[in-house]
Amino acid sequence: MVSLLTVGKGWKSVECSASNPNVSGDFSFMYNVGASGADPTAEYRAITLLYSDLCEKAYQFFGEAEDADGVNNLRYLNNNPNKNVRLGEATYAALKTAAGGGRYVFLAPYYDAYQSLFLSRHDFEAQIFDPYYSRETAALFDEVNSFVTSDEHVSLSFFDNNEVRLDVSEQYLAFAGQAGISSFVGLGWMSNAFIIDYIADRLILGGYTCGYITSADGFTRCLGNADCTVSILAKRGAVTFTACNTVVSGRASVVRYNNFPVNAKEGFYVYEDEKVASHYIDVDGRYCAACSSLTGFSSAYGCGEIVGSLTAAYIAESVDINRLSAAKEKGVYAVYVDDTTLYYNNADIKLTNLYSEDFTLTERLF
User: Fold this and answer.
1) Cβ contacts of residue 35 below 8 Å, gap of 6+?
2) Exposed, middle or buried: residue 129 (CB in 10 Å: 0-12, 13-18, 19+)?
3) Over pLDDT 70: what percentage of the chain?
4) What is the pLDDT at residue 3?
5) What mean pLDDT do residues 302-318 have?
6) Tens digit of pLDDT for each residue in 125-134?
């Protein structure tokens, strides 16, 4: 329930008050109550109610593990291949954006399989599910690869009125039945990018712009009338460090990719020898990251669009500069750290507190 106590003016953490299942556990919402000139107590109550409602709806719209009452989500779509399905507006928009970013949306079988690896408590357990260690897992993923990379076996078609069709070949359906695969499309680690866009866009439409939302796994939306400090994290050897800071102003989106765990809510497993199995899965089912960390910024697009523009540049053997340059042309900028060098492609991004303790981090505009 929303507190009936008087709320003072200033920065407050907005907490979800919904009692039904919701997504709030992955997010932190900070708001400068009263900065717009509104009564702080009334504004805090109103924004708490709206945020709570949005967190509850997002759980239904973006659910992949269970069906939702009154709306067709991704779970429903996966259960109804080769049919035209009308999705909820938010689900349809997210899926269409994700599908425009490459084949990652079809990697749901990998995303599901990796959950067992990430939940492992010991190396010998994790290695059972890791294709770099297990021949059986590698062979299974190689078979999955032949389906998820082919439009002939799995594809999406989008129509008016939020209708979408998931086409799955008879051969893939038969294989899925034998292999225990129940999902053909999914957002996986990208899910919170679209959830945060859904919540932020509707808060802005409601007139609430004096704050920002962050997710535990690296997505940030600044609502328009508040500054937000973003830390660029990186790792060298066994040392995780803050490479630099930057302040994001106005309406902006930030996406952080990092090949190391920042908190327990991210999908990673760290082996005893410090090798990291991450949720950045390529089309062959192997985890892969081009560098320690990459952070994308845009004032023109949401987090979902940034993911669509930058993911293929990061899930690679080395950073794909051509993809980063193409993203820059449309207004998506990047900062990445590779060993002792910090690269950035927009001189307007002001980087401060550059790391200089165990070694000197060098800046380079590219």
Assistant:
1) 9, 210, 225, 226
2) buried
3) 99
4) 53
5) 98
6) 999 999 999 9
Owner of token pair 């998506």 = 332
Q: Which residues sit opposite 245 in a β-bridge?
A: 231, 352
CA 336, CA 319: separation in Å to the nearest integer? 9
Alpha-carbon span 343 to 142, nearest angstrom:
34
**Number of Cβ atoms within 10 Å of the Cβ of 164:** 21
- Compute how many other C-beta atoms are within 10 angstroms of the C-beta atom of residue 308: 23
Give the global pTM. 0.95
Q: Specify the 3-state DSSP secondary structure of 35.
A: coil
Question: Nearest Cα to 224, choosing from 238, 243, 211?
Answer: 211
Exposure on the CB side of residue 157, measured as CA atoms within 13 A: 11
DSSP-H helix ranges across 213-338: 303-314, 321-329
Sorted by sequence, the CB contacts under 8 Å of residue 202 that are 6+ apart come out as: 50, 54
Identity of the amino acid at 62 = F
Residue type at position 45: R
For 38-80, give the secondary structure using H, E and C.
CCHHHHHHHHHHHHHHHHHHHHHHCCCCCCECCECCHHHHHCC
Question: How many helices and strands in the chain, by DSSP H and E?
Answer: 10, 16
The helix (H) or strand (E) run that includes residue 163 is: strand 163-168
Place of tokens 């499309």: 185
Strand partners, 268: 278
Q: What angle do CA 81, 22, 310 make, to 5 degrees?
A: 65
Six-digit token string for 221:
């939306």
Q: To the nearest whole number, what is the mean pLDDT of the chain?
A: 95
Residue pLDDT, tens place only, 219-257: 999 999 999 999 999 999 888 999 999 999 999 999 999
